[in-house]
What we know:
25% strand; disordered C terminus; alpha/beta; 204 residues; 19 strands; 4 helices; 5-stranded parallel sheet
Amino acid sequence: MTEREKMLAGLLYDCGDPELLDRWHTAKDLVRDYNAADSADLEAKETILSQLLGGRGKNVWITPPFYVDYGVNIFLGNNCEINMNCVFLDDNRIVIGDNALIAPNVQIYTAFHPFHPADRFGPPREDGSFAFCKTQTAPVIIGNNVWIGGDVILMPGVTVGDNVVIGAGSVVTKDIPNNTIAYGNPCRAVRENRPEETGRRTMP
């Protein structure tokens, strides 16, 4: 089993694996180019996204700066808008459905580490080189027609259902059911997302 296979399976894996590091560096170079591209150069941005992301639908708009770990584990649906300064740590899959609005400074984490400090690092390497800490992952899944407010953090393994609004500044630690408005730290569903409110643009 390769380290990449372990990573996607949620097993402890070696972040310093050459295959993973090669893709990590490639992704960092691609986001550097994307973030530095002329704002109106849509063709260049499309070319970079095709190399960076695992998959995307039609009409995807990502406002730079945008940051990822690997890029290839990110899958976006149709009509997705991701605003500036978002961080997607895609050590496992990040899947976002159709018609998503992702506000500025949203952070999506799929990686986590052992709680006990002695378990996070092995013994020092004999050659003195950097030893990456032990890591596991869990995917983050976001449904269709979801609006995620600014500065929201989504933790590893959470699923956000369809037609959900997540209030600004929330920390999502557990699954959020369909058709709800949710906010808080920890984030929780507060009430139903009623159809007559779909035109409102302010967070609760």
